[in-house]
From TrEMBL, chain A:
Sequence segments annotated as region (Disordered): 1-29, 141-164, 182-215
Species for this entry: Calonectris borealis
Biased composition (Basic and acidic residues): 8-18
Designated name of the protein: SRTD2 protein
SERTA domain residues: 33-80
Automatic annotation (TrEMBL), chain B:
Matching PROSITE patterns: PR55_1, PR55_2
UniProt-recorded Gene Ontology molecular function terms: protein phosphatase regulator activity
Cellular component per GO, a single term: protein phosphatase type 2A complex
Full protein name: Serine/threonine-protein phosphatase 2A 55 kDa regulatory subunit B
Homology family: Belongs to the phosphatase 2A regulatory subunit B family.
Coiled-coil regions listed in the entry: none
Keywords assigned by UniProt, alphabetized: Repeat, WD repeat
Source organism of the structure: Calonectris borealis
Entry-linked SMART domains: WD40
């Protein structure tokens, strides 16, 4: 838990790293501030999706984590690499969904910085009070091993039905930036989020065409907070998550046995084309748009439901 | 820290420990609340398995004048069962969040116990006599053949072994969409409030099918939710006044006479943030986990992650005193955020009411990690750290104060921050209303300490 880092010798500098805010304008500590912020951001995201599925998560905890994420995002926006933000009338009132689309440049900016696992490792002796180095290295974030095991690696988030145009185009943008696979949980949440955005007044009552069993996991995710609070606000952060190679680059897929696919070993990126192709073959009857192997990432809602059903059933 | 001997300094000694010995903690045994009744004779605990265990203090033995009576099990009952919310496909935990005693009015005792959704009024009564000598029934209950009855007699009550029975007298259900975090009985002893994350309801103890909503902070658009209610309590003397605390570190005092829905506070207590301590976690550590009025009603105490604050009800802009519980954790907040410890809800309590009224001394107590608990003496401004562990369990031996070494060279007998056990947390403590007896709950054990009587 605590204290996995080496013993610190210079106690007077200890406070500067973790307990107190380090102004982003400080020279050498700017990186550490950004690093810390990114770490906290990632941890916060993991927390939102790692609650016990049986009981309702604590609303207080969720609210505090969401506030943390919002604050970090605000800060990133103010740090300026953004187009001006505007809320479109056609979109359901969700300032955060606009934020994430606008915020992409900021996050891609960050992603293009050398904030990769190797960098984390090299700076951890200084940052050992933040998070134990082993956790950053392993990309497991000890509190949430289930995120990687629960969901199988999949091709990046499927684009949903043409009805949800702006969301689809946003996802397209992300996919261009980062074709890394993400967890099915995150995908399911996005699906659920979109459902809930279109039906803000209903919880899990209205379902698009899809299989009932697949809905259970999604509706649990969707209703982890009353009023779809969690999912709609965290939608904004999910896309940032998909940009984040650090979290999902090294997912161990050996535990994932997806029936239509041959099981794969090694890096998730190697697996993606194989599974996507297999997936498409099995889901051909469901697809409403032509899908080619070159675009393995676009699937519609029913295919996603089918995947969820398989996952929940397995 | 509190020195030995002299004046008002208390020397705490181990008295008893209740609960399983082994380190393997069954989840159902995790203690979730501790509360003395108004006389201090009874001590109730609630656990994660939905059970309530009540201990009763032995009447003082004249021959054992050097110690106060021991607490022994008086009654155990299953207060709440796990339920399933079919609409949301989620379990409702049976964990007892709070127990509050009613003042005793007759031979029976009454308490309110609550889980996340339902509050129950329990009657605990003793039976030490039973009727014997029925005409139509044998002693074992079998019915006699009426034709064999030749004489009649009047049944009489005869003594029997004491039996303590708990029965649910009222069930207050279906009034909370969110998780109940507090219940508080009003000084009129007729009404009580229950608070969840977004709403506070007012009940009459006799009426279970309706309650009045007196606070509602749910936004029209849940996406705008940034603050929740964390605790609420009625004023000990003014039956129209209550306070509730929030996850942003504010306390609102409301007067029910002002309007039916007390969404507008009469007073708002908030301390401005110290800019030198600002961090990513400032909001989270400012979230108030407990609020308790002093017995006089003039002050209230709040607990946030790192400190205990005493507020004067007449001063809203800052507390009158702040005590640091474990300031050495400030540099560990990121790790504590990651392992969720930063969300731990520590409670706090005042020392006994009688002593406070006479102003002999006022002490506040709260828990920490590594099975440590802390006390702060308001008059002397001194503090002490003690440990609840079975290793200290020699009765009448004074507990040794503990010290945590934040950084630098660790002195002998000090414990370094990195070797603290964050799984051993003391969240619940209670102070006997009249005596210097305290109950301290570790994960699954209940420790009772008392001061050394000379």
């Amino acid at each position: 838990m605590l204290g996995k880092g080496g013993k610190r010798k210079f106690d007077e500098h200890e406070d500067g790293l973790e307990g107190k805010v380090v102004s982003p304008t400080d020279g050498p500590s700017k990186v550490s501030y950004t690093l810390q912020r990114q770490t906290i951001f990632n941890i916060s995201l993991m927390k939102l999706y790692n609650h016990r599925p049986l009981t309702e998560p604590s609303l207080q905890k969720t609210v505090l984590i969401n506030n943390m994420l919002r604050r970090i995002q605000e800060e990133l926006k103010q740090e300026g690499s953004l187009r001006p933000m505007f809320v479109t009338a056609s979109q359901p009132a969700d300032p955060l969904s606009d934020n994430f689309r606008e915020a992409q440049p900021a996050f891609s900016h960050l992603a293009s910085q050398p904030l990769l696992p190797t960098d984390f490792v090299s700076t951890t002796p200084l940052e050992s009070c933040l998070t134990p180095a082993s956790l950053l290295e392993d990309d497991t974030f000890c509190t949430s091993p289930t995120v990687q095991h629960d969901g199988p690696t999949k091709p990046p988030p499927p684009v949903l039905q043409p009805v949800k145009d702006s969301f689809s185009s946003a996802l397209d943008e992300i996919e261009e930036l980062c074709p890394a696979p993400t967890s099915a949980e995150a995908v399911a949440a996005e699906t659920a989020a979109d459902d809930s955005k279109d039906h803000p007044s209903e919880s899990n009552v209205q379902k698009p065409e899809g299989l009932p069993e697949s809905r259970t996991a999604e509706s649990k995710l969707m209703d982890s907070l009353p009023g779809n609070f969690e999912i709609t606000t965290s939608t904004g952060f999910l896309t940032d998550l998909t940009l984040d190679d650090i979290l999902f680059a090294d997912i161990d897929t050996s535990m994932y046995d997806f029936d239509p696919c041959t099981s794969a070993t090694g890096a998730a990126s190697k697996m993606a084309p194989v599974s996507a192709d297999e997936l498409l073959k099995t889901l051909a009857p469901y697809s409403s748009q032509p899908v080619t192997p070159n675009q393995p990432f676009k699937m519609d809602l029913t295919e996603l439901d089918h995947i969820m059903e398989v996952l929940v059933g397995s | 820290f509190l020195g030995a001997g002299g004046g008002n300094d208390i020397q705490w000694c181990f008295s008893q420990v209740k609960g399983a010995v082994d380190d393997d903690v069954a989840e159902a045994d995790i203690i979730s609340t501790v509360e003395f009744n108004h006389s201090g004779e009874l001590l109730a605990t609630g656990d994660k398995g939905g059970r309530v265990v009540i201990f009763q203090q032995e009447q003082e033995n004249k021959t054992q004048s050097h110690s106060r009576g021991e607490y022994n099990v008086y009654s155990t009952f299953q207060s709440h069962e796990p339920e399933f919310d079919y609409l949301k496909s989620l379990e409702i935990e049976e964990k007892i969040n709070k127990i509050r005693w009613l003042p005793q009015k007759n031979a029976a005792q009454f308490l309110l116990s609550t889980n996340d959704k339902t509050i129950k009024l329990w009657k605990i009564s003793e039976r030490d006599k039973r009727p014997e000598g029925y005409n139509l029934k044998e002693e074992d209950g079998r019915y006699r053949d009426p034709t064999t009855v030749t004489t009649l007699r009047v049944p009489v009550f005869r003594p029997m072994d004491l039996m303590v029975e708990a029965s649910p007298r009222r069930i207050f259900a279906n009034a909370h969409t969110y998780h109940i975090n507090s219940i508080s009985i009003n000084s009129d002893y007729e009404t009580y409030l229950s608070a969840d994350d977004l709403r506070i309801n007012l009940w009459h103890l006799e009426i279970t099918d309706r309650s009045f909503n007196i606070v509602d902070i749910k936004p029209a658009n849940m996406e705008e939710l940034t603050e929740v209610i964390t605790a609420a309590e009625f004023h000990p003397n003014s039956c129209n006044t209550f306070v509730y605390s929030s996850s942003k570190g504010t306390i609102r005092l409301c007067d029910m006479r002002a309007s039916a829905l007390c969404d507008r506070h009469s007073k708002l207590f908030e301390e401005p943030e110290d800019p030198s301590n600002r961090s990513f976690f400032s909001e989270i550590i400012s979230s108030i986990s407990d609020v308790k009025f002093s017995h006089s009603g003039r002050y209230m105490m709040t607990r946030d992650y790192l400190s205990v604050k005493i507020w004067d009800l007449n001063m809203e802009n800052r507390p009158v005193e702040t005590y640091q519980v474990h300031e050495y954790l400030r540099s560990k907040l990121c790790s504590l955020y990651e392992n969720d410890c930063i969300f731990d809800k520590f409670e706090c309590c005042w020392n006994g009411s009688d002593r406070q009224v006479f102003l002999l001394y006022i002490i506040v107590m709260t828990g920490s990690y590594n099975n440590f608990f802390r006390m702060f003496d308001r008059n002397t401004k001194r503090d002490i750290t003690l440990e609840a562990s079975r290793e200290n369990n020699k009765p009448r031996t004074v507990l040794k104060p503990r010290k945590v070494c934040a950084s630098g060279k660790r002195k002998k007998d000090e414990i370094s921050v990195d070797s603290l056990d964050f799984n051993k947390k003391i969240l619940h403590t209670a102070w006997h209303p009249k005596e210097n007896i305290i109950a301290v709950a570790t994960t699954n054990n209940l420790y009772i300490f008392q001061d050394k009587m000379n």
